[in-house]
């Protein structure tokens, strides 16, 4: 929209009724996107109007995980996002030709996020989830500038090394004065398929470590919102485009994720 003034971001308006959650993690592969799509699908199934911005330039896996088949369309000068599983979705991957890797630099990402928030026709949303790239990069700071009222959800594994990097990701929210809603521990053990005993594949305690550290730095209690076990059905649901909260809501991972979605 060269030359035109930037459109206002509706979610940043004072009195906006949309709750914006930015889902962050210290490093990749901890299940941030899986958590985002499952929370979104569960909230939509509960009757909320939900949108997801896939701002994870390195992963942009949200469309596949939600089974998005349509492309965005343009009406007037607004972008209409496709809907899947009752969730409106826009992804950086929808604007890169083929599957080309994104090698954009900070200012372009800021601009892309600005457009996703202002130039996409979201309608009246109850909840908007932003799937951020891992780490404390430019996008986290852009979110803070563009939507100062966005609240932060931190995803970590139980592993102590992962907890330390997740804690750094949370500290940036403190610096930008954003509220941290809580910590979601993912891959919290796996029930043995033979005897049912929990195997702590990635150790224990990472979620609590991050929550305690962020409680200290923010001076406000940051809770562990839930512990999602390792569950084959969650991975399969992601690969098939049917989030486990829909394909198998009473599975171990599905029930924890649905419970969290109901409380957010
Ligand atoms: P991130 O967004 O943090 O990079 P993803 O959500 O893409 O992580 O997850 C990485 C991989 O791990 C995916 O293949 C996903 O299906 C799988 N995965 C994530 N959480 C779980 C879980 N609780 N149980 C089983 N597989 C999981």
TrEMBL record:
The keyword RNA-binding does not apply. It comes from the Bacteria. ATP binds at residues 26-33. GO terms for molecular function: 4 iron, 4 sulfur cluster binding; ATP binding; ATP hydrolysis activity; ATP-dependent FeS chaperone activity; metal ion binding. Residues 236-255 are annotated as: Disordered. Keywords: ATP-binding, Hydrolase, Iron, Iron-sulfur, Metal-binding, Nucleotide-binding. GO terms for biological process: iron-sulfur cluster assembly. Belongs to the Mrp/NBP35 ATP-binding proteins family. Homodimer. Binds and transfers iron-sulfur (Fe-S) clusters to target apoproteins. Can hydrolyze ATP. This is Iron-sulfur cluster carrier protein. It comes from Allostreptomyces psammosilenae. The chain holds residues 107 to 370 of 390 of the full protein.
């Amino acid at each position: 929209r060269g030359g035109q003034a930037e459109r206002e971001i509706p979610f940043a308006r004072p009195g906006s009724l949309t709750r914006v959650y930015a889902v962050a993690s210290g490093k990749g592969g901890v299940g941030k996107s899986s958590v985002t799509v499952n929370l979104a699908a569960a909230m939509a199934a509960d009757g909320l109007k939900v949108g997801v911005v896939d701002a994870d330039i390195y992963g942009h896996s949200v469309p596949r995980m939600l089974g998005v088949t349509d492309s965005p369309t343009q009406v007037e000068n607004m972008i209409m996002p496709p809907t899947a599983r009752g969730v409106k979705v826009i992804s950086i991957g929808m604007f890169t030709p083929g599957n080309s890797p994104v090698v954009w630099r900070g200012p372009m990402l800021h601009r892309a996020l600005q457009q996703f928030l202002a130039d996409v026709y979201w309608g009246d949303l109850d909840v908007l989830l932003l799937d951020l790239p891992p780490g404390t990069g430019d996008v986290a700071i852009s979110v803070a500038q563009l939507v100062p009222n966005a609240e932060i959800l931190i995803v970590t594994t139980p592993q102590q090394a992962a907890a330390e990097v997740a804690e750094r990701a949370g500290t940036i929210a403190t610096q930008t004065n954003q509220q941290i809603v809580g910590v979601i521990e993912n891959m919290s053990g796996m029930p043995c398929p033979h005897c049912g005993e929990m195997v702590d594949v990635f150790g224990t305690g990472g979620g609590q470590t991050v929550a305690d550290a962020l409680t200290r730095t923010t001076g406000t209690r940051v809770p562990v919102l839930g512990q999602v076990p390792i569950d084959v059905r969650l991975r399969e649901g992601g690969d098939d485009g049917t989030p486990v909260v829909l394909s198998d809501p009473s599975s171990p991972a599905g029930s924890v994720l649905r419970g969290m979605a109901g409380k957010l």
